[in-house]
Amino acid sequence: MKYIVMECHNSYAVLLDEEGRFVKAASLHYEVGQTVENPILMHDAPVFSEPRRQQKLFRILTGTAAALAACLVLVFGLHFYQGHMTVYSSILLSINPAVRMDLNREGEVIELAGANEDGVLLLEGYDGEGKSRLTVTEELIGRAIDMGFLSEGGRISFSIDTPDEVLFQEYGLELREGVTAYLAERFTVTIEITAGREESAAEPSAEDPAETEVQPQETLSPASSAVPETTAPAATQAPTIPSPPPATQPSATQAPTAPATTPAGDSGYGDSGYEPPDGDSSYEEQPEGDSAYEPEPEDSGDSAYGDDDD
Amino acid sequence: MKKEHELSEEVYRAKDDMEAADQLISAYLPFIRSETARFLGRPPQEGRDDELSIAMIAFHEAIQGYSRSRGAFLSYAAMLIKSRLIDYRRREKRHQGQLSLDSPPAEDEPALADTLAGDRDHSEEIVMRSATRAEIEELSAQMKLFGVSLTDVADNCPRQQRTLAACRRAMQFAAENPSLLDDFLRTRRLPIAALCEGSGVERKTLERHRKYLVALLLICTNGYELIRGHLKQVLKGGTAR
Predict the structure, then answer these.
(1) Structurally, how many domains does chain A consist of?
(2) ipTM exceeding cut-off 0.85 for this assembly
(3) Full domain range(s) for residue A256
(4) Interface of A with B in 47-66 (CB under 8 A)
(5) B157 to chain A: which residues are within 8 Å by CB?
């Protein structure tokens, strides 16, 4: 390509190429009017956007917005985490297998743990995370029936550990009604609801009204927080076991040695394949206290026991 | 620190003003020379070493391409000068091993160029050159009347082949309509509407390259035969279409 030198400056020259382009090039001792080949052309300036003031402002604004959004996400995320991911209350379900359900603030199950060997067995292959407490309870009871842990005349006890008294009552009512309805066509079982916390266990009178609302019934052991409730057939047995507070203490400890106190109950347990001493003792005293005594120490049971000592 | 700030202000002023850029280069010629000397390993000789001119054009590029947000100007310019000189050296390497016609002859031997049967007549070439120069001077004088300089035109020249072709089409149309050119010379206004309609080029394209079109249309008017001869390919291509 040939170029005509159009203009010469100190530091550059303007050339005209054959296609009509005017270009700047290094002035290699050119003269105006000269025809040259292979000049050193000036490269085009690289194109990049200069940060203008508006752009800076825009950047600052977007940065602030992003920071605010991040804060919001963090706050709401924390709230959600506290509401959904942290353990707020827990329910200990004991049939004979004991299972601890950890609930979040919303009352959904976030973790399940077996509290004794049978409990671990019961939970094997079961995933209840994210389900409602009642669903999990029903499913676990169903599994317990399938696995032979629970049968006619059995006993289910719930120990609810929550910092909120209102929640305790709500959960207690719900579980009692739910489980009663769930088992209505199949079994008659005893449902027992206790508070897991020491402070709530220390005042059984507070929860008594709630329990009696569900089904008015005489309390067997006013000293303990346990409020056993039996459906039709069990109710007839209840009066046959007068267990005054002083008498419960020895009976609980002696339960394995004196299984013959309740003939009717005995027969029921024998049917289910339960060992009489275990069932008996649970019938006499709060069952979770007993189970806690044997397989592993558990605070709710302990506390209830402590109360008895007083 | 303050000096650096002032320099970057000057560079930004020189971006749009070629004269300011030329002044800045004169002021920083010692810097450019020292950078070239560092590359060559010896001080460059003015008027002999092409490297100095290349360093200057690289400094121009540095002015155009400098961004304040990317650090100091002088280090950028030094880097650009160095890389352009390297480019140049690589390019020249291709011609190594070939004897220059202008290389100083050995004793009692005529210069190489003189031994060739010249296909180019030197005296004719010199006449040609001076005639072309006369035309160019005339052209730039006329362009001054339109408020356009050759440097402006070089800055305003389309980069894309497509745009270049569009501008050429507009020029073609004007060349075929002498009355349009007469009007253009008389009123000193670019007949953008007529060009747009006649050549089918988008108005925006024409408006963007106003200065370039002024130069092209002026070249189309009488008296610039030599320049037109240089552009003959363009004009031929235009008529062929």
Answers:
(1) 2
(2) no
(3) 84-309
(4) 48, 50-51
(5) 21-23
